[in-house]
Structure formats: structure tokens, C-alpha cells
Backbone:
């Protein structure tokens, strides 16, 4: 197997695991972790092809996505902790908060 096929296979497996966690789990923290897995699957491709083509744009894109994912994780965890103070957070209680 060539290295690019291995990277694609690992990336697809990571993405599918993240998608399964996002769709099948009812806990907000598990859904957030699934979303982070999906983002890291995309970052894996950015870094691999940036190295493969000797292009700094892949590395730069991966760093920007990593920074955005970190900010998203901070906001998501803050919201989950705020909801956890009220009651056990799940997706149904968040739907009730819509205004």
C-alpha cells in the first residue's frame, strides 16, 4: 500500500468514527469529541499533502484549522459546563433552550 492510501484510509476511519460519535451519541461531550475527530481527520490530509508537495500552504492551513478547533472546543466545553450546572446536559435539553 502506498503512503497516500494509508493516510487516506486512516483519515477516512477517523472521520467515520467522529461522524458515528456525532450522530449516535446523546451526550454533548461525546458529540464534541466526535466533531474534533472529524476536524483532525481533515488536518491529517492537510499535513500529509503539504509535506508530499513541499508546500507550506498545507501546514499553514492545518495550523489555522487547529487554532479554530481549539477555540471551538473552548466555547463548546464552556457551554457544556454551564448546562451541566443546571442539569444533566443532553441534546433534548439544549433543544428546549432555543428561543
Residues:
Amino acid at each position: 500500500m502506498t503512503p497516500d492510501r494509508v493516510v487516506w484510509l486512516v483519515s477516512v476511519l477517523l472521520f467515520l468514527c467522529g461522524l458515528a460519535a456525532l450522530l449516535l451519541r446523546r451526550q454533548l461531550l461525546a458529540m464534541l469529541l466526535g466533531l474534533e475527530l472529524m476536524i483532525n481527520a481533515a488536518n491529517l490530509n492537510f499535513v500529509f499533502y503539504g509535506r508530499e508537495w513541499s508546500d507550506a500552504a498545507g501546514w499553514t492551513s492545518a495550523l489555522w484549522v487547529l487554532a479554530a478547533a481549539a477555540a471551538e472546543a473552548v466555547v463548546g466545553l464552556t457551554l457544556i459546563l454551564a448546562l451541566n450546572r443546571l442539569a444533566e446536559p443532553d441534546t433534548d435539553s439544549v433543544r428546549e433552550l432555543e428561543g
About this structure: The chain is about 85% helix and 0% strand.
